[in-house]
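Figure 2 data, in text form.
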Amino acid sequence: MRAIAEFAMRGSAYATALSMVAAALPLLGWLSTVIVALVCLRTGIAAGSMILLWTMLPVGVAFYFVGDPTPMIALLGTGIMAMLLRQTRSWELVLLASVVFSGVGALIFEFSAAGILDRFVQFYIDYLAQVDASVVVDPADARKLLMSFFALGQAYSMVIMLIIARWCQSALYNPGGFRTEFHQLRLSPAVSGSIVLAMAVCYMFGDLLGRWLPLLTVPLVFASIGLAHWLMANRELSKNWVAGFYGSLVLLFQIVYPFLAALALMDSWFDIRNRIKTIQKD
C-alpha cells in the first residue's frame, strides 16, 4: 500500500490517473477513495477537490448504469472527512462527521436505489422464512433493519479508508505520526454525553429513530480501539495481542462491541490514559 501511495503522490497527474483507473475497476473503488483522501490530507482542499471531481466521473458512470450510489457516497464522505481532518486535526470531529455523512448517505441510498433495497429486503425475508417458517417479518421492519446496517457499514468503511490514507501519509512524510495520533484518540465528555443523549432519544422514539442507534456507536468504538492500542503499546505487548484483540472483536462481536462502547465512555469521563500514567509515576 505504501508503494501505491508513493506512486500516487509523485504528482497530481499520477494521483488522478491512478484514482480514476481504480474507481473504474471492480472491487478497487476503495483504493480510489483512499488516494483521494491521501491527496486531500497532504496537499489541501484545492488539489483534493480536483482529484475528487475527476474520480467522480467513473463513479458517476457506474452509478448511472448500476443504480448503486454506495461508492459515490463513500468517496464524497471520505474526501470531505479528509479535508476536515487536515483543517482541524481532530479525529473527534471526523468521527462525528462520519455519523452525519453515513446517515445522510443511507437516506440517499433508500430513495435513489429503492429497487436494489427492495431486492435485499425480499432476500432477507425469504432467508428468515427458510430458517424458520413460523417467523413473519414486516417488510417495513426489515427495511429499517437493513438501512441501519447500511449506515453502520458506510460509517466504518469511510473511517477505515481515511485511517489507511492517514497511515500512508504518515509512512511517507511523518513516520510514527499516525501511531501517536491514533493512540491519543479520545472523546471529550461533552461529545460522549451528547452521543448518549442522542441514543436515549433514538431509543424512546424507536419506531421513528431506532434505526440510527447502531450508527451512534461508531465514534465510541473507534475511540476505544485507539485506547486499546495505547494500552498494548504502553505495556509493550507483542503484535500477537493486537491480532488477538481484533480476532476477539470479529469472533465475539456481540460481547466485545458493547464493552468497547462502554470503555470509550469511561475513558471520556475518567481519562484512563492519564490515570495509568499517574499510577506508573507513583
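Caption note: Residues 77 and 101 are 6 Å apart (CA to CA).
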